[in-house]
Amino acid sequence: MENIYLLMLVALVVLAIADLVVGVSNDAVNFLNSAIGSKAISFKTIMIVASLGIFFGAVFSSGMMEVARKGIFMPGQFYFDEIMIIFMAVMITDILLLDFFNTLGMPTSTTVSIVFELLGAAVVMALIKISASDTQTLSNLAGYINTDKAGEIISGIFLSVIIAFTIGALVQWLSRLVFSFEYEKKVKNFGAIFGGVCLTAIGYFIFFKGLKGTPYYGSFKDILASQWLTVVGVSFVFWTLFSWLFMKIFKKSILIIVIAIGTFGLALAFSGNDLVNFIGVPMAAYHSYEAWAASGQAASSFSMEVLREKVPAEPILLFISGGIMVLTLWFSKKARSVAETEIGLSRQGHGTEKFDPNMLSRAVVAGSTKLADGLRHILPVGTKRRISKSFEKPDDILVGDKAEEQPAFDMIRASINLTVAGVLISIATSYKLPLSTTYVTFMVAMGTSLADKAWGRESAVYRVAGVLNVIGGWFFTAFSAFTAAGILTYIIFLGKGPAIAILLLVAIGLLVRNYISHKNKAIAKADKSGLKKSESKTVQGIIAESADNISNVVSRSNKIYSDVLTGLAKQDKKKLKKSKKGVDKLEAEIEDLRDHIFFFIKSLDETSVRGSSFYIAILGHLTDIAQSLEYISKKSYKHINNNHKPLRYNQITDLKEVDDTLSDLLGKIDRIFTDKRFEYISDIVDSKPEMLKSINDKIEKQVSRTRTEESSPKNTTLYFNILLETKELMNAIMNLMEEYHSSYKKV
């Protein structure tokens, strides 16, 4: 029986390594985003600075490991076999939950996940013990759980969300009022003071929060506590002088140093304090096993009161953990996905919105707009003019790849993000308040985005919806962590070794599936074969660039149409579903091009405005093509999915003739636009009457069949729908050819 606990311990070590990987992938967003979004320093430099912060924080982390040992439950109330079940359930749940959020590209709190997993597992194990006892009732549950700590954590969640957002917005608004968006000029005059304030706050944060729990903290603990005003004053003078000298000597903005040191500080704090979320449970399990093995008692009777003792973390394990976290930071693609979510929500300029608006986000935006309008009426005209001037943004709209190259926000906002997050975490720690670094850093970033007017009328409903989704995900984390860990605890209690083996295999399978899913999404995102935005500023260039898109749409339309008819003939629901997805992807790409029209027109030369009319017309015809394909694929899938009668043989034969004719036509168009031999478009246009006559003949033939032979209304309706929409598809294709032919002749 002893072997099973040794195997469980080995499994927990492996799970700890996996948890480090998925945990860093999610929490990297906390300390990377400000530097990445502002592009103040190169990505390589950001990674080096963050890696140093992570490694030092991990190596010197030891004081926070008590949370997993006795912070949530009363260890003396459980025996060794019970505590190992709790720890196993917690680690399996934690990995799956964090990996799920990473795959979605959503930031969540590793602190909340581990706390509620421990709470859920301990509650269920306590209920099992109570149910098996003749003397205990449900009222005894409080004796097993550290209820005060759980209450503090839940209240801390609400407070951190509200306070971080509010303070972040206020500080950013005041900073922007002083520096405006043309901050480079004012930084030369006030940069030393601003740098002194920011670096003092970040420096205090590094020492107070980042190094708390390290062997060196005791030497300056009393000084920070009793003479903090003196420490802050001396630091401010030092950092102000340093900022002034840096700008004078190197002729660079001090904001670069603020962002670099702020990134290091948050990475240090994350690693030093959140490491417990990943290895705290396995280390507690190791110490439990060590104590039990030395006791010689039975696993079912050895009390875990030993976990109440303070045991320092193993230096070698901290060193290894730091190395794993650094490697994960460099190689995890999921970390980039999570970072993209927050940067997208806080982006100053225009960009693709990841979230769809919902009723709540619309209500919030509408209410905020009315409140802002009311405040404007109260303020004096001069004050409103002064404020508006500070928030005027430079007109630097970029298109194409250049838009992706510009920073998501400027260095002022990045500095405020890092400074405010550091100060809030420091204050909370000084009052011993439970706090999630994820909640603070994310909500500060959202608050500064709001204050910076990054959430304009064009994007507010999407950004607010995104924030609400992320916050909702945090509460989902707490609920699902508690529930899933509790369920797994009960399963392991019933099934023992075999149950653990099955759960580990299921966990591995889910991790592999999520990895493949994320990899496929990344490949699809990097796929350059889709429709491309026009970046040309002349009519000739627009015509040439549009040719590639037309060739792309025609080729894909040909395949989609043929696949739909093949799926109908063979009643292949899988093929029809795949065609529907192909149409959805095509429609999304065309819609993306339509959303780009504003930027396209803004980039045109004065002499080439005529190109905008051509470009808009082309997009209109491409939209008509996609809508016709969407209608045909949707109706066909619905027919087969509802198990209606298949099409008759003669109907399939007629549709095959239409498909062959259309396929031949689209093949010719594809070759014309691929080879840029536009002079042959006239031949395509001339074939329009014959093509439409062929479809009309099929319609008349079906009318005749319906009067004499057909007996299936659903069958007949589908056939007519396909023919009529094919006619619309043909018209859209021919209109596109006529538009292109007409514009090509004018050039």
From TrEMBL:
The protein's GO terms of the molecular function aspect are: phosphate transmembrane transporter activity
Top-rank taxon of the source lineage equals Bacteria
Does the keyword section mention Aminoacyl-tRNA synthetase? no
| A GO CC annotation given for this chain | membrane
Localization annotation: Membrane
Which Pfam families has this protein been placed in? PHO4 (PF01384)
Instruction: Tell me the Gene Ontology biological-process terms attached to this UniProt entry.
Output: phosphate ion transmembrane transport
What family does this belong to? Belongs to the inorganic phosphate transporter (PiT) (TC 2.A.20) family.
By what name is this protein known? Phosphate transporter
Q: Which organism is it from?
A: Christiangramia gaetbulicola
